[in-house]
Amino acid sequence: MADQQLPAPKRFITGHDYDGKAIFDTQLSDEMPTKILTNYNFRLGYVTQGIPVDLAGDSDIKAYQSYITEPPGLVLHGGSILRFVDFPPGEGDMHRTLSIDYGVVLEGEMKLVLDSGESRVLRRGDVAVQRGTMHQWVNLDQEKWTRMMFVLQASKPITVSSSGEELKEELGGLGDEVRPST
């Protein structure tokens, strides 16, 4: 992949010492695992299992460690995923996950295009609440990469009101390089 000129983000995990004082946990590197795809860079910031999340005995950290070596699919049923995605200039793939996603633009400007043809431009600091719809991300800069941060959580099945059809996950061109939801 071409040089994207965006610095690698770091992740800092906190916890508690034996006496209950807040500390920075050093079990994991501050560097996030990165998966370089043909058109994107994915960074796995954190993964949790279960709601509410169990923090006792660092069980959340242990669960995340297992996903570093064997990453989850795009969405993890029964948990949450924090992911950073770097987008090259141009259009991305139209896709749908059965999830609620909070997508925050960290660098650049992105256009969110829906399969209805509607679209919105998101600038740095803007957030999209993506509710299982078919959508596409477009980096509006013709030269620079854009970065977004996503928090994804699986949703219950989505049914089309008019037909009763249950919508399915559709990964489009992502499906060649990204595992389906697990």
Automatic annotation (TrEMBL):
Protein name as catalogued: Uncharacterized protein
Source organism of this protein record: Fusarium austroamericanum
PANTHER family the UniProt entry points to: CUPIN 2 CONSERVED BARREL DOMAIN-CONTAINING PROTEIN, SLR2101 PROTEIN
Region annotation Disordered: where it falls in the sequence: 162-182
Composition-biased stretches (Basic and acidic residues): 165-182
